[in-house]
C-alpha cells in the first residue's frame, strides 16, 4: 500500500496559460499514458473513468468549496455565505432532503416544458441577414440567459444581468479568478442575492408557471423548503445554468465547424440533435475537472489518500475512455455514462435543462448554417473552472431554400 504523497507522479499543470485547444487535449493524453493519477498545482488529477466515478460517488469525499475558499481568504461575507449554503457543499441527510424537494422541478419532463420558449428565443436571435457572426456574442451568450430568465419567471430584459452575475459567481470555482478578481466575484454574489430575494418576494405574492413558484410550493411528506433554502437554490440555478450552457454551445459550434460532414448529417436530420449533444458533452466537457476532498482516509487501487487530500476528476479523459474515443462522431454508438455532469449524489441538478437547451439550439441552427466554418481563430478561456470561449467567429453559406431567416447578424 502506497501513500499518495510518496508517489513519483507525472505532473499536469491545469493552470498553464497555454493549456487550451489541442495542446490541452494532447497534454492530458500524454499524462494519462503514464497512469491513472497525476500531480496538479493544488490537487491530484484523476485521469480515468473508473477512478473518476469512484471519487465522485464515494461517501468519503466531498466538494471542497470551503477548503478552496479558505485558501484564498474567503472567510466571511456574502460569498462565504453562498459557498456554505451551496447545494454542492451539502452532504448527508440535509443534501438528500434538498434533492428530494427540488428534484421534480428538474426532471426531463419539466425541462421539456421550456422547449417552445427556447425555440422562440433562437428565432429572435436569428432574425438577420448576414452569413457570418461572432457566435458567442450573437447567440451563445444571450440564449441561455433568456432561457434561464424564462425558467425563473424573471423579465426577459433582465437576461443580460443574469448572464453577468452567472459569469462572475461561477468563477468562485476558478482558482485563477479567485487569486486575481475576488472583489468582483464578491460584488456579483451580493448583487444576485438581492435580486433573488426580490424575485422570490414577487413570486410569493403572485405565483406563476415558473421554477421559483415551484420551489416556493415544493413539499414532500409535510416538509417544505425554508425561505433561505429557496434563495440559495435559485442562486445555484442562476449561477450554474447560464455560463455553462453558453460555453458548451460555443464549443459545439466550434467542433462542428471543424467537422463539416458531421454538421451536414445533423442539418439533414435535426432529430440527431440528442445524439449530437451527447457527443459534444463527451468530447469537449466544459467542466474538465471536478474537485473532491477526502473527508477521511481513502484507499483506491493500492494508493492511500490521507484525509484532506484534494483530487480533480478529469471528465475529458474519462469521457474519451471508449472505443475510438478521440474521434468526434455523432453517429457512433457509445456508453451513455459521462462525467461531464458529475456522478453520484451531486450529479448536476440542471443536466436535463442544459440538454434541452443544447438540443433545441443544434436542431434549429444546423439547417440554417450550411457549410459552417471558422471565420478566424477562436479565443479560448482557461480550463480551471468553466472552459469557455471568449469569441468564436463563424461563417456559412445562405441556405439553399433561400429561407427569409437566412442568418445571424453581427452584434453591434
Please give a quick description of this structure.
With 412 residues, this protein is of the alpha+beta class. It has 19 helices and 15 strands.
Provide the residue-averaged pLDDT. Answer: 90
Radius of gyration: 21 Å
Major sheet: size, sense and barrel closure? 5 strands, mixed
CATH topology name: Cytochrome p450
Highest CATH level, the class: Mainly Alpha
Helical stretch tally: 19
CATH superfamily: Cytochrome P450
> How far do the termini sit from each other?
61 Å
Count up the domains: 1
- The CATH architecture can be named as Orthogonal Bundle
Structural account:
- This protein has 412 residues and is of the alpha+beta class.
- It has one domain (2-395): Cytochrome P450 (Cytochrome p450, Orthogonal Bundle).
- The chain has 19 helices and 15 strands.
- The strands form five sheets. Strands 2-3-11-8-4 form a five-stranded mixed beta sheet. Strands 1-10-9 form a three-stranded mixed beta sheet, with no helix packed on it.
- This is Cytochrome P450.
- Belongs to the cytochrome P450 family.
- One of its GO terms (molecular function) is monooxygenase activity.
